[in-house]
UniProtKB/TrEMBL annotation:
Top-level division of the source organism's lineage: Bacteria
Keywords: Lyase, Metal-binding
Source species: Scopulibacillus daqui
Ranges for domain Pyruvate carboxyltransferase: 7-273
Stored CDD domains: DRE_TIM_HMGL
One Pfam family here: HMGL-like
Protein name (record): Hydroxymethylglutaryl-CoA lyase
Amino acid sequence: MSLPDKVTIIEVGPRDGLQNEKNTIPTETKIQFIKALKQANIQEMELTSFVSPKWVPQMKDADDVIEQCLDNTRNFVLAPNQKGVERFYQSGANDIAVFVGVSNTFNKKNINKSTDESLEELKPLIADLKQNGKFVRACVSTAFYCPYEGKVPAEKTIKLCEAFAHCGVNELSVADTVGMATPKEVYQLFNSLKSIQPKNILITGHFHNTRGTALANIYASLEAGVDRFDSSAGGLGGCPFAPGATGNVATEDVLYMLHGMGIDTGVDIEKVIHAVDVVAPFMTRTLDSKLYHLQKATASTEA
Ligand code: HMG
Ligand code: MG
């Protein structure tokens, strides 16, 4: 068994985790959450997104969040279009995440454009971002299944990944948006993505845990050589335009599994759990995190 010695965790809780939350979460709480995650030694994080406040009201305070949270680690802000990229330049952030769905129907529901239209809009923007020395992450949604179209052929996902790679993005975050993928298909797709050029492009797995397969999918990805994973503290998350999609795999559950296998992440589990405490009172649904609930149950027995 040859698994990586080190894995990078990209914390997506402040963005993917909160975007779908119905309660308005105070900006100050979001900032406190992000800072607590940084205390846990998270080095890469999606902070927020530049999207329409009419479509995703929870992200309307993006500028205020960024202003308080930029530091010398990698802080991503999501942007789907020209307006989003313009806002990104004005914000002073250095790391951007663009996003497109492989499935046309999903992309239309999410961004109001076809997959090809989104890609065509983004191509010159990515070229410009690269010329300006920005780190560009491309999030590839519905890489396995679409909530509207069903199974997404691997060839279509590989084609979109290749198109992004050709644009010069630094990273591909390949997403199981609705948490329908299972380990064999995950292994096969990530194994195929190894041949993507250039060789130094970073490949990341992004798993929602809707059907409880996320940890198994991470293990399958590790076996295919993937050493970067998006996860969300407390298992928060879900895309407002992907019906049925629940949270991302919980960061603390991923850390427990990786650390137990001797894989270093540099991230402190206890401090991640402490960060979840900051936002937990604002959540309208039960958190999908084994470790968080176990810790709380143990603490109340000991009290
Ligand atoms: P639209 O209505 O087609 O936009 O929405 P438009 O270009 O026609 O413009 C309409 C209005 O929106 C205009 O304002 C624009 O200025 C404004 P008005 O003149 O009416 O006052 N606008 C914007 N405002 C702020 N920021 C922008 C922006 N663009 C236009 N960037 C749009 C198109 C993309 C804006 C809309 O569909 C949208 O905001 N969608 C949000 C989608 C979203 O945030 N989804 C969740 C993130 S993706 C995800 O979760 C998946 C991921 O986790 C991976 C996975 O799990 O799959 C990454
Ligand atoms: Mg997601």
